[in-house]
Design brief:
mainly alpha
Length: about 230
C-alpha cells in the first residue's frame, strides 16, 4: 500500500462564486472609476485623512484597485478548484504587466490596449492549437462538454474568429474615442467613459450573446440520453 497521500480534489466554481470571480474585479473597476472621486473623501475621513482624486485620474484609481481585486479572485479560484484556470492565468499576467505600466509610467494607453492584447492572444492560441493538432478550447472547458473532435474544431474556429473581431473592435474603439486626448495627462477625456462602458458592458453582453448562439451546435453533438430524441 502506498503511503503517499493524494492531494484533495477541488470543486468547480458555480453560481455566486463563479460570478464573483468573473465579474467581481470588473465591479470594483466600475465603482472606482465612476464613484471614486465621491467616495475618496468619505473613505479618507474614516482614517482621518484628506483623500481626493483629481479630475482625469479616475482611470488610475480604477486600475490600482482592479489589480488587487483580480489577484484576490485568482487566488480564490485556485484555492477552491485546486487548479489554475488557463484563461484566468493569462489574463492575470496581462493585467499585472499592463496595469503596472499604466500606473508607473502614468500612461493610460497600456490599459486601453489590454482587451486588444487579451483577445488577440486568445485568438492566436486557439488558431495555433488547431494548426498543431491541439484543441485548447476543449482543455478550457475541462470536460464540461463532451463532443466529437469535428464539433470542437468548428467551435474553436468560431471562437478564434470572434476573439480576433473583438481585438480589432477594441483597438478601433479606443483609438477613435481618445483621438483628441492627452493619454499621459490628468485632463478628463470625454471618450474615456464611453470606452469603459464598452469594455465592461458592451464586450460582456456581446460575449454572452455569441456564446448563446453556439448552443445549437453544442446541443447537436452532445451525447443523447437513452430514449431521448436528438436535438433538431
Amino acid at each position: 500500500m502506498s503511503n503517499q497521500t493524494q492531494a484533495p480534489k477541488g470543486e468547480k466554481l458555480t453560481g455566486g462564486a463563479k460570478l464573483a470571480v468573473d465579474m467581481g474585479p470588473l465591479g470594483v473597476f466600475m465603482i472606482a472609476y465612476f464613484l471614486g472621486r465621491r467616495l475618496a473623501p468619505l473613505v479618507g475621513g474614516v482614517f482621518g485623512q484628506d483623500w481626493t482624486i483629481a479630475e482625469g485620474d479616475e482611470m488610475y484609481l480604477a486600475v490600482g484597485l482592479f489589480m488587487p481585486a483580480f489577484l484576490i479572485a485568482f487566488v480564490y479560484s485556485v484555492w477552491k478548484e485546486r487548479r489554475v484556470a488557463p484563461m484566468l492565468l493569462v489574463t492575470g499576467v496581462i493585467v499585472g504587466v499592463l496595469g503596472s505600466l499604466t500606473l508607473i509610467l502614468h500612461n493610460k494607453t497600456f490599459f486601453y490596449m489590454k482587451p486588444t492584447i487579451v483577445y488577440a492572444l486568445f485568438s492566436s492560441v486557439l488558431t495555433a492549437g488547431m494548426m498543431t493538432g491541439q484543441n485548447f478550447l476543449k482543455i478550457v472547458f475541462d470536460g464540461a462538454l463532451h463532443m466529437p473532435d469535428d464539433a470542437w474544431k468548428t467551435l474553436t474556429k468560431r471562437y478564434a474568429i470572434f476573439f480576433a473581431v473583438l481585438a480589432v473592435a477594441n483597438e478601433i474603439a479606443w483609438r477613435w474615442l481618445m483621438r483628441d486626448c492627452d493619454l499621459t495627462g490628468g485632463v478628463t477625456c470625454g471618450g474615456e467613459k464611453h470606452w469603459v462602458n464598452l469594455k465592461v458592458f458592451g464586450f460582456t453582453i456581446i460575449s454572452v450573446i455569441f456564446t448563446a448562439f453556439q448552443a445549437p451546435l453544442i446541443a447537436r453533438h452532445m451525447p443523447q440520453e437513452e430514449g431521448k430524441p436528438p436535438a433538431a
